[in-house]
Amino acid sequence: MLLSVKTKLDLNSQQRVLMAKHAGISRFTYNWGLATWTELYKSGFKPNHLMLKKFFNNEVKPALAWIKEKGICQKITEFAFEHLGTAFKNFFDGKSKYPKFKRKHGKASFTINAGGKPIPVGGKRFKLPTIGWVRTHEGIVHAETKSITISECAGDWYISYSYEQPSVVTSKSVSVVGADVGIKFLVTLSTGVVFANPKARDKALVKLRSQQRQLSKKVPGSNRYKKQRLRVATTSRRVANIRLDATHKSTTYISKNHAVIVPYGS
């Protein structure tokens, strides 16, 4: 059974700068690949991410000293091209629109690995490849993973990864259950169990609108604009976390107590 973990990192100022550098290199590599792919395609060629990665590593990367700076994991460029390849595959399969360039102030993230070796994680302190020792705000299960993604949200950095764990069969109180997803209630089960809808956005709407109005009055790029933008992002993150928490609690309960889910109600 494959389990996923995402938790907040407890970083010092130097580590935050290092994470931002990794995310910047990942964004630069992805955007370079997208621009080159587009130009080659317009010229009649049929590029792929492996071709672009090989050219980038042999011709472009050696001239960019800042990518090879001490403390920078070189695997981030490899994963940037893999993500680009996935984006184009989804586009060609009709699953998504044409890939877009990553913005500097958009969602920052990057992926690393240990060259195929397993990465041990666990507790509140562990070592990342090249980056070194980092701390988390909460203890996590000791395990091994093949790759790790680090992302930024509202000024905070998070680590996410997947690991394998033996499947555990739990006894089901009711094998088959009907589930009705609604607006007033998040989920209503045929057994009578009801999960309330937290309506996080409705409760935070007044505060969010006020913060967005204040943001619109600030000069883009100024320090006040950046601070207010962070306030808006923090409020939005809290809304998303409340929603996600409610979803996780309801789905965990259902999966532990029922084997089959069918539509219920009208």
Give an overview in words.
This protein has two domains: 2-164, no CATH class; 176-263. Helix content is 42%, strand content 27%. Strand 3 and strand 4 form a beta hairpin. The chain contains five helices and ten strands, in the order E-H-H-H-E-E-E-E-E-E-E-E-H-H-E. A six-stranded antiparallel sheet has the order 2-5-6-1-4-3. Strands 9-8-7-10 form a four-stranded mixed sheet, covered by helices on one side. With 266 residues, the chain is an alpha+beta fold. The longest helix is centred in the C-terminal third of the chain and has 35 residues, at 223-257. It starts with a strand and ends with a strand. Helix 1 packs across helix 3, helix 2 (49-60) packs antiparallel against helix 3 (75-92) and helix 4 runs antiparallel to helix 5 (223-257). The mean pLDDT is 90.
How would you summarize this macromolecular structure in one to three sentences?
This protein has 266 residues and is an alpha+beta fold. Helices cover 42% and strands 27% of the residues. The strands form 2 sheets. Strands 2-5-6-1-4-3 form a 6-stranded antiparallel β-sheet. Strands 9-8-7-10 form a 4-stranded mixed β-sheet, covered by helices on one side.
Structural topology:
Blueprint: E1 2-10, H1 13-42, H2 49-60, H3 75-92, E2 109-113, E3 119-128, E4 132-145, E5 147-153, E6 156-164, E7 176-181, E8 185-189, E9 194-196, H4 200-216, H5 223-257, E10 260-263
Parallel strand pairs: 7-10
Antiparallel strand pairs: 1-4, 1-6, 2-5, 3-4, 5-6, 7-8, 8-9
Helix pairs in contact: 1-3, 2-3, 4-5
